[in-house]
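Justification of resources, computational component.

The compute hours requested in this renewal are based largely on the per-chain cost of generating structure records like the one below. Each record pairs the submitted sequence with a full structure-token output. That output is archived, and it is also reused by downstream analysis tasks.
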Amino acid sequence: MPIVRWDPFSDLVQLRDDIGRWFGGTEKEGKLERKGSAWSPDVDIKETETEIIVKADLPGMKKEDIEVSLDNDLLVIKGERKFEKEEKEKDFVRVERSYGSFYRSFTVGVPVKEEEIKASYKEGVLEVIVPKAEIKKAKKVEVKTE
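The structure output for this chain reads:
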């Protein structure tokens, strides 16, 4: 099992992102408009000897509204679940499903094969497979005496 580097500031970065989503808005026709409530999909992360598997629950979303990226050591999943126009016009008694933008980021912590990362979306679950790069082992050098 590889040694995972602990980053004491990773929780602060996540908190900053969350606060930015809570208070973020867009300006439309001269007035500030809320993009929707902040929400965060549930995620499972599994690590094997050869890969890291991330599964995120994103029911009711279109794959076009989901973005996955890897920037250095940070895996980012973001997107937006839009409130359907015809549903907005109806008189709801209760709305419990979350809508709006989401942003999740995770520190990978191990070298990966960036060109082999795969993402698939099926039945409301996004699955991202991040293959680990082989860690080079130290080469033992024989010391000769003269």
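The beta strands are 26-28, 31-33, 43-47, 51-57, 66-71, 74-81, 100-107, 118-122, 125-131. The radius of gyration is 21 Å.
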